[in-house]
């Protein structure tokens, strides 16, 4: 019976940690992942925590694990930006495609990235969402907004789509 009570305490503490992390700005999926990692770390640990210190320890470990995860993701995003999103990705063969390239570089980075990954790298919406770690609907919205902005600039400059075909 004591084990059941202990498990219930762990479940309550895990829910508290999830809510705390979400309230602190962590995504729901990350909050659940971090909390699960905390529980695994605690259950695999070869130490015994007194009940009065268990809650504080779990919170401290959760925050540290999230910070580590955040740093790893930030480093990953920097590598992606450095290696995937180089300006040399788009080959320009003629003056018109050079204009298209200039327009693409003027776009906000979030639109430029999804357009480059979708049209020039050939990634699907699902793959782009995984690479950039955003939802598929966000990828679709950014694609639509980027295309809309390009279309507006093309019209303002008096060009047609046929002029820009590579």
Automatic annotation (TrEMBL):
<dbReference type="InterPro" id="IPR036388">
    <property type="entry name" value="WH-like_DNA-bd_sf"/>
</dbReference>
<dbReference type="Pfam" id="PF04542">
    <property type="entry name" value="Sigma70_r2"/>
</dbReference>
<protein>
    <submittedName>
        <fullName>RNA polymerase sigma factor</fullName>
    </submittedName>
</protein>
<dbReference type="InterPro" id="IPR013324">
    <property type="entry name" value="RNA_pol_sigma_r3/r4-like"/>
</dbReference>
<keyword id="KW-0804">Transcription</keyword>
<feature type="domain" description="RNA polymerase sigma-70 region 2">
    <location>
        <begin position="18"/>
        <end position="74"/>
    </location>
</feature>
<dbReference type="GO" id="GO:0006352">
    <property type="term" value="P:DNA-templated transcription initiation"/>
</dbReference>
<keyword id="KW-0805">Transcription regulation</keyword>
<dbReference type="InterPro" id="IPR039425">
    <property type="entry name" value="RNA_pol_sigma-70-like"/>
</dbReference>
<keyword id="KW-0731">Sigma factor</keyword>
<dbReference type="InterPro" id="IPR014284">
    <property type="entry name" value="RNA_pol_sigma-70_dom"/>
</dbReference>
<dbReference type="GO" id="GO:0003677">
    <property type="term" value="F:DNA binding"/>
</dbReference>
<dbReference type="InterPro" id="IPR013325">
    <property type="entry name" value="RNA_pol_sigma_r2"/>
</dbReference>
<dbReference type="InterPro" id="IPR013249">
    <property type="entry name" value="RNA_pol_sigma70_r4_t2"/>
</dbReference>
<dbReference type="GO" id="GO:0016987">
    <property type="term" value="F:sigma factor activity"/>
</dbReference>
<dbReference type="InterPro" id="IPR007627">
    <property type="entry name" value="RNA_pol_sigma70_r2"/>
</dbReference>
<feature type="domain" description="RNA polymerase sigma factor 70 region 4 type 2">
    <location>
        <begin position="99"/>
        <end position="150"/>
    </location>
</feature>
<comment type="similarity">
    <text>Belongs to the sigma-70 factor family. ECF subfamily.</text>
</comment>
<dbReference type="Pfam" id="PF08281">
    <property type="entry name" value="Sigma70_r4_2"/>
</dbReference>
């Amino acid at each position: 019976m004591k084990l059941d009570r202990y498990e219930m305490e762990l479940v309550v503490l895990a829910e508290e940690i999830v809510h705390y992390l979400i309230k602190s700005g962590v995504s729901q999926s990350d909050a659940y992942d971090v909390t699960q990692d905390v529980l695994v770390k605690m259950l695999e640990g070869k130490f015994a925590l007194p009940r009065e210190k268990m809650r504080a320890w779990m919170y401290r470990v959760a925050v540290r694990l999230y910070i580590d995860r955040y740093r790893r993701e930030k480093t990953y995003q920097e590598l992606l930006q450095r290696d995937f999103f180089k300006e040399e990705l788009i080959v320009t063969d003629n003056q018109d495609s050079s204009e298209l390239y200039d327009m693409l570089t003027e776009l906000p980075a979030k639109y430029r990235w999804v357009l480059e990954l979708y049209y020039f790298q050939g990634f699907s919406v699902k793959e782009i969402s995984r690479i950039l770690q955003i939802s598929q609907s966000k990828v679709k919205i950014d694609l639509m907004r980027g295309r809309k902005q390009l279309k507006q600039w093309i019209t303002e400059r008096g060009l047609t789509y046929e002029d820009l075909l590579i």
